[in-house]
Amino acid sequence: MARGGSLETDALNAAGEYAMSCVGRERMYEYCSQAHATPLAILRLNYATEMRYGVLVDIAQRVWAGEPVDVTMGHLNAIWQADANAAALSAFGHLAVPPLVLNIAGPELLNVRQVAEEFARRFRKPVRFTGVESADAHLSNAQMSHRLFGLPRVSAEQMIAWNADWTARGGPTLGKPTHFEVRDGKF
Hints:
This protein is α/β, with parallel strands linked by helices. It contains six helices and eight strands. The strands form four sheets. The protein has a two-stranded parallel ribbon. The radius of gyration is 17 Å and the shape is globular.
């Protein structure tokens, strides 16, 4: 966590079928890019969120419902979905052979316990926890994309405020939990 997460140059360590399928997808794109001289960018998105879906929605809903928040995955980074979309569109100006690989994530390293406590404060509700924070987390260091495209426009603080308001007003969600707390890749 001291490095702020995995860098684009780090060896991939796929835990579980979903992660393995992501590595397989990347390898196919890399192969096709080189075999056909097709410029590409591979974007590794980490926890995009908006009002109806995302890790912040998961945490907010648990606090609102009085359910315990699992802190086993003690840290996360998140990015507002519109900022992730803007980064994806901006990547078209940087396509390459072999593909340019970029992490797309928010710059803040968020502590799950502190995020839950902030939702509890905003909701004026108690928060309960389960699990024990691990020494590591599934994080992406997106400094390279931030250098290329600038920092995301929406901060983690703003995302939390928007999601707290949405949740408290009973805003609809997609009903698809992220399973951010799962560490073994089995969803």
